[in-house]
Amino acid sequence: MTHRTISIPTxxxxxxxxxxxxxxxxxxxDTLETPVVGGANFVSAAGWQAWSAPSTDGTHRLRLRRxxxxxxxxxxxGFGAPADPAIxxxxxxxxxxxxxxxxxxxxxxxxxxxxxxxxxxxYALDLTTLREAKVPALAxxxxxxxxxxxxxxxxxxxxxxxxxxxxxxxxxxxGRSRGLERLSPTLARATATSQGRMVxxxxxxxxxxxxxxxxxxxxxxxxxxxxxxREPLSPQITRYRAGWLLPGDGVTRVFQTRxxxxxxxxxxxxxxxxxxxxxxxxxxxxxxxxxxxxxxLDARGVQRIxxxxx
Length: 310
Known about the structure:
The protein is mainly beta. It has no helices and 27 strands.
């Protein structure tokens, strides 16, 4: 399959990036792995999967699929709006960060009533014990905390509300003294976190976009997409690549960056459109630490992508 490289339209991608367009879609034979009715906000990591599903009592419940294929409904309270989980590993207690001390968790916000934005605090569900607890380090009385994600104790979270320091934050719970650090005054709509970076989607007066930042706050901002007319969805990030979905006319398009530079730069960004699309109803997808997109959730359930998007 051939690709062609073009300059970036201002309405599509940030200045300085390059875009590689795909050719015709490849043959698709995606496999339904888990039937799901009314599901939303699918994520995956470390062999686990999570999504939100409506319940008969009018609430929404968190559903999990273990690496062995078993489907679980944790014994926790329902959500007034669809749960928006992420899966990642928390740092060890007291700054200890060894494989034995890490805790794989599903993290999400619990909000007031049926809101998904107001009166929210971040919670973590330990996937070993299936016990849920609020994350005190991310809580405040002034703000509403939403869109959490984490990897190896490196968190991303959004603080909303009337305070002067609202915005998109990072937090490291691996024994360092610094607390929450604001990376941007922009209110992210969704975040994803790697060991040293975050990717987040946003909406501004000029349209929707995607940005990549180092979690330390150092370095510049990588603008992967800007001035989009439609909202990018389901941001993903590995150590050196990021991706997202973009609803289109009758399809959902998949965009990924090529490997971008390490912490020393130079910061160059090339965005690639995948050589295939996903069904129009797809609004969330998930990958793992090495591949951005491996599965998605549509009206039938969780589908494994075949051929794989690379």
